[in-house]
Amino acid sequence: MTKKTVPFTKLQIEEIVKTYPTPFHIYDEKAMRDNAKKLYKAFTWVPGFKNYFAVKANPSPHLIKILKKEGMGVDCSSLTELIIAERLGFKGEEIMFTSNDTPAKDFKKAKELGAIINLDDITHIEFLEKAIGTLPQLLCFRYNPGPLRKNKGNVLIGKPEDAKYGLTKEQLLKAYKIAKEKGVKRFGLHTMIASNELDPNAFVETADMLFDLVIELSKKLGITFDFINLGGGIGVAYKPEQTPVGLEYVSKGIKKLYKEKIVKNKLDPLKIVMENGRMVTGPYGYLVTTVLHKKEIYKNYIGVDACMSNLMRPGMYGAYHHETILGKENKPKTHTYDVVGSLCENNDKFSVDRKLPKIEPGDVMVIHDTGAHGYSMGFQYNGKLRSAELLLKPNGKVEKIRRAETIDDYFATLDFSHI
Ligand SMILES: Cc1ncc(COP(=O)(O)O)c(C=O)c1O
To answer: Where does a domain end: 241, 256, 281?
Structure first.
């Protein structure tokens, strides 16, 4: 069970709204830092453990800077994300570049920064060589186990055999051989087959799978692996009845296998790294929105001033995000509403048939767990503008870390003079 609370009072939000009108995302710095420390503490036994924060989850530079201070690297998937990393002072192997269908200019930037390049396909060896002149000394490949992990994956990431990512096992063998022949000296092995996974065993099984593969590849090809990357995917307990992943449990399970497989085969030290995004920022973000309208037709609707462009997950995958009406936390949930935004799309709903206390226009609703894949998935459909992002500091003060878009921002890419 996860008690869904908010780290601010109604009074505080009423004060904040005077300067920053709703809707906005607000992030809880202290809770985010505490969680990052917890993640690192769980894996202290791992030589060189690092979480490469998946920038796509929340590309807000202020937040990434906080995570850098907590020891995290960055997992970038595009040129823009690489530039964010560069501007925040990340260098070399603090950056993992995991992308797919990659343009040459992205590889060039990754090389310029000395990032660890993680290839998504066997044909990308040649593509990379052409793009950057020569292969880097350290190279990583992304493994897709396909039908070997039949029951893994979900709507977010695809079942391994249907997912567009990574190399097959046969291709991996060939790819590392080619890389070795072309002078690559250090190797990494990556996979990412879970997304929003709450079963801790899934991560232990993934480590097990990669340990076996490291053993096989090392023996067959005479190469040494620097690291394995278990990918991201540690889930968030979005629903109150869900339980967050027990990090200590995962760590203990992996440690046992590390001794049995890696140490026994004299393949240690082997770094184990991850690239979680969702669990790092997700639970520490809140979308704050004001109720504009109440509408009663065949169903009862609550219209808020945020919409799917502020948080796409419910409309896109039917994802659950908890809702709190500020000041009504302890009121009985006597009413059933669909909570909707104003897009001309009927799936622009934050919740369907949600039991909530009686709501009135003017009430402030907090939508929970919006710190990952929230703002970052935003868009401008229907001329909607992206909201501000605020940071709730450990001292209780609020800092604007991204201003809200203005109408001028919307028109900035257009030239009306020739129309
Ligand atoms: C390659 C890769 N790594 C890491 C992540 C982060 O996953 P999560 O935010 O679920 O931890 C993603 C998410 O899509 C991804 O595609």
So the answer is: 281
Structural domain contains residue 331: yes
CB of 233 shorter than 6 A to ligand 1: yes
Among residues 264, 281, 298, the one where a domain terminates is 281
> By C-alpha distance, which of 206, 201, 196, 204 is closest to 242?
196
Ligand 1 pocket test target in 197, 276, 317 with most atoms within 8 Å of CB: 276
316 and 287 share one domain:
yes
In a domain, 330, yes or no: yes
Structure tokens at 27: 């992030």
Contact 374 CB / ligand 1 (< 6 Å): no
Q: Which CATH number fits the domain that encloses residue 49?
A: 3.20.20.10
d(CA 383, CA 278): 28
pLDDT tens, per residue, the chain with 419 residues:
889 999 999 999 999 999 999 999 999 999 999 999 999 999 999 989 999 999 999 999 999 999 999 999 999 999 999 999 999 999 999 999 999 999 999 999 999 999 999 999 999 999 999 999 999 999 999 999 987 665 555 555 556 778 889 999 999 999 999 999 999 999 999 999 989 999 999 999 999 999 999 999 999 999 999 999 999 999 999 999 999 999 999 999 999 999 999 999 999 999 999 999 999 999 999 999 999 999 999 999 999 999 999 999 999 999 999 999 999 999 999 999 999 999 999 999 999 999 999 999 999 999 999 999 999 999 999 999 999 999 999 999 999 999 999 999 999 999 999 89
Answer whether residue 16 is part of any domain.
Answer: no
Return the axis-axis angle of helices 79-87 and 104-113, rounded to nearest 10°: 20
The residue type found at 137 is Q
Is the domain of 190 the same as that of 330?
A: no
Kindly give, in sequence order, each residue whose CB lies less than 8 Å from that of residue 183, ignoring residues fewer than 6 positions away.
134, 135, 137
